[in-house]
Amino acid sequence: MTALAPVLMNRGGLWIGWAGAAAGADLKGLLTAFSKDAGYDLHPVFLSEEEIKGYYFGFSNEIIWPLFHDFQSRCNFMPQYWNAYLNVNLKFAEVTARHSRDSDYIWVHDYHLMHLAFMLRNMGLERNCGFFLHIPFPPPDIFLKLPWRDKIIRALLEFDLVGFQTMRDRRNFVECTEALVPEAKLSGRGNIVAISLKRRSIRAGCFPISIDFNSFAALASSPEVVKAAEEIQEALRYRKIILGVDRMDYSKGIPQRLQAIRQLFVKYPDLQEKVTFVQIAVPSREEIPEYFALKNEIEQLVGEINGQFTRPGWIPIHYQYRNLPRRELIAYYRAADMALVTPLRDGMNLVAKEYCAANVTESGVLFLSEFAGAAAQLQKVGAILVNPYDTEGTAKAIHRAFYMDTRERHSRMVKLRDSVRRNNIYWWVDSFLQAAFSRHLDDFPQETV
Ligand code: ADQ
Q1: Residue owning the nearest CA to atom 20 of ligand 1
Q2: Residue with CA closest to ligand 1 atom 33
Q3: Which residues contact residue 246 at a Cβ distance below 8 angstroms, ignoring those fewer than 6 apart?
Q4: ipTM of this complex prediction, to 2 decimal places
Q5: Long-range contact set of residues 189-193: C-beta below 8 Å, sequence gap at least 24
Q6: Is the CB of 5 under 6 A from ligand 1?
Q7: Any ligand 1 atom below 6 A from CB of 195
Q8: Which stretches of 181-283 are DSSP H helices?
Q9: Coiled-coil intervals in this record (predicted)?
């Protein structure tokens, strides 16, 4: 939830979340110190090892995550995961009830807590509740496969506002509602629509999340980052740098991206020894066997490709499996001539926006997957769209960009940065909250392209 920290810092509030550790961990001192510095309070919810297994790794990350990202064959529809999910949602609702007043606005984030408003209502509490889904919402032919589809869609309808990353996600949600909740009536057009149910009406809207543009741009211009970026370029002998940055997740399309890099060197030998691909992967959900297998697959591919093409003084792929401090990450963004952001499916993808913000020299090229939510915004303003499954097409696009003239690169990046600068994280929060509180459906700011 890196996107939300600057917002809370700016506005204050109370963040209720899983402590990230099993029950019993002593976090009290840590939290007090954190709140003093951060300007907002944190309240931990503790989960037992068993709850973490069933609710987090199980229901959230072995059912909802793969299904909503269109990887049905990776789903593990274990019935016991469902009970764990409900129990933990109830636990969160109880903590929320204890730590909030009637007048507070409750803003729930992501697929782990889709039942929260339902639980609060069952407890007899009438709180104004909004929900934002950070991942895609699937179309009916996928969503209807979910054994608990009716309960989940009806639980989502207990929120007063349901927000999605793209219009496509919002449309999918509306279509699933129409398929499963016959009494629901839709009205309105544009970014926000109203869904009327028997006793109440809710809103559903599209709010593409973003980043704190100014903070990324300022850090990218700091002497420390400028120096670190130069050191990276020097270490890679001033060859063109293509960068990939992702959480290690099968939705991010890292193996396909590596295949595209292999294609690049096979089909376009003129780029051998001229470009270096840097892939930075942050460890994620390592307890799930699929994630462990993915890491092995990636490491094997990197080994194969490097084995095939490495020459004295040139290693084609530099692979790092670690969490980078923010400054170092921004130095890589700044140093990179191209960013290859090619998820197979992604709610938004903040790496694409962070790269643009950090590209203060306005000379970089952004390749973006058609299947990232960010494509809906950024294809209109200079990103080069690629189909991540089309490894030859991706290689061809990279080859073309290598020889693209400086003016075109510059004009694309200027437009991209302009768009991310305007539609930043603060714009996102304002548009969500305005949709939550405005009287009329069209009383809120539209995105500016
Ligand atoms: P994620 O799937 O985590 O988020 P993304 O939007 O790309 O995906 O955000 C990843 C974040 O992790 C970025 O802020 C990036 O800087 C950071 N990061 C990645 N690799 C890193 C590394 N090696 N070291 C340090 N930091 C690293 C979910 C959805 C997305 C949606 C976001 C926000 O899956 O689609 O964009 O939420 O809504």
Answers
A1: 246
A2: 134
A3: 252, 254, 280, 281, 282, 343, 351
A4: 0.97
A5: 190/441, 190/442, 191/167, 191/435, 191/444, 191/446, 191/447, 192/435, 192/441, 192/442, 192/444, 193/441
A6: no
A7: no
A8: 213-221, 223-235, 254-267
A9: none
Is 239's C-beta closer than 6 angstroms to any atom of ligand 1?
no
- pLDDT per residue over 70-87, tens digit each? 999 999 999 999 999 999
Among the atoms of ligand 1, which is closest to the Cα of residue 132? Answer: 38
Give residue 199 CA to ligand 1 midpoint distance, Å: 39
Q: Which atom of ligand 1 is nearest to the CA of 324?
A: 24
The whole model's pTM is what? Answer: 0.94
- Return the active site residues: 134, 346
The mean pLDDT of 303-311, rounded to a whole number, is 98
Give the model confidence (pLDDT) of 257-274 as tens digits: 999 999 999 999 999 999
Distance 359 CA to ligand 1 centre (A): 18
HEC per residue, 127-187? CEEEEECCCCCCCHHHHCCCCCHHHHHHHHCCCCEEEECCHHHHHHHHHHHHHHCCCCEEE
Task: Tell which residue, 311, 298, 244, has the closest CA to residue 272.
Answer: 311
Using the atom order of ligand 1, give the atom closest to the CA of residue 281: 23
Residue 34: predicted pLDDT: 60
Kindly state if the Cβ of 134 falls inside 6 Å of ligand 1: yes
Per residue in 315-347, pLDDT tens? 999 999 999 999 999 999 999 999 999 999 999
What's the gap in Å between 80 CA and the centre of ligand 1? 29
